[in-house]
Amino acid sequence: DATFGGIAYKAHACLGCHTIEENGKLIGGPQSAALQNAGQRYNADWLFRFGQNPQDFTPHSGEFLADATEPQLRAVIGFLMVQGVKDFTYYEPWTSREFEMARVDRGKVIYKEYCSQCHGATGKGDGPAASGLEPKPAIHANIPFEKLPMEYLYNVINHGGPAVGKSPNMPYWNLTIGQQGVADVIAYLKVTFKGVPDMAAAPGGEQGGTCVQPRKTAKAPDEFLAKTNPLPASAGAIQAGKTLYLKTAQPVACAMCHGEQGDGKGIMGAALVPLPRNFTCGSMMKDISDGQLFWIIKNGSSGTGMMPFTGLPDEQVWQLVQYVRSLAK
Fold first, then answer.
1. 97 or 303: which carries more pLDDT confidence?
2. CATH superfamily name and code, 203-327
C-alpha cells in the first residue's frame, strides 16, 4: 500500500509543493509543509480528514484539491506515515480474518467470472480478451502459485499490474471483489495451478532457456547506449548484484522470472510470453551494451513481462548489470 501510495503521491502532483526523501535525497518543491518526516509528525486519521478537502483546513492557501479516489487517498496516507520512521512495522493484509476464512469454491466462481476473461477458463492465457492484449496475459497454468511471495501475489491482484510494475491491463480488483474475494481467488490459484515440471515445455513453442531469443526490444536512447558500467567487475560489486538478483530487488527478485542460474527458467518464467531472457547465453549477451541493460532494468520492456525497476538507485542497477554479465557463458 505504501509503495502504491508513493506512486499516487507523484501522480497527483503532491511532489510539486511538498518535499519527501527518496534514495537518501530530498526531492519536491519546498513551498509547503515538508513531509520527509511525516510519520513522526502526523496522525493518520487527521491526514485522512485533511486529504478529503484540504481547503477546509487551509482556505485561500493555494492548497491543491486532487481528484483522487478514497483508496488512493488511503494509500497516499500510508506512504506518508512511513516517511521518517525507521524500521516501520507494516501491516500484512494476508494475515487478516478474510484469509483465514478463504474458500477455494468461492475463488473458483470469481476466477470464472472475472479472471478467465483474460487468463482463460483453465489458466492458459487464452481468454476472449487475450488476443488483443500486449503483453499477453500470464499463463496461470504454468505458475506454481504456492511458491510465489504472498506480498507480490496479493499486490498484483488487489492493486493491479502497475502496483508491481506489471501491465496496466491487469486491473486492480480490490473494489470489485473485496478483500474476501481477493483471499478466495488466491486460495483457488494455489490449489489449482502447480506450474510445469520442466520449463522446456514453454508457451508458443518457444523453448525455455533457448540461447539466442528473438526479440523486438526497444532500443535505448543514444545517451544510454553510450554508457559503460562505472563500477569495476569486482567481487564486491558482483556479490551485491547477486543479492539483488536472488533476493532483494523490488518489486520482485529477478530470479523469480530469469531463474536462479540466469537461464530464464524462474518459477514465474513459464507463464510469460515471450519467455524471460537467458542471461547465460554469451553469444546474445555480448551484443547487448551496458547502457541498454541499464535502461531496460530501469524502464522495463514493452510487450514483455519485464517490469521497470524505477525505484532501484543507479548504483544498484549497475551492480545488477555486473552480476548479469558474470552469468554469460
1. 97
2. Cytochrome c-like domain (1.10.760.10)
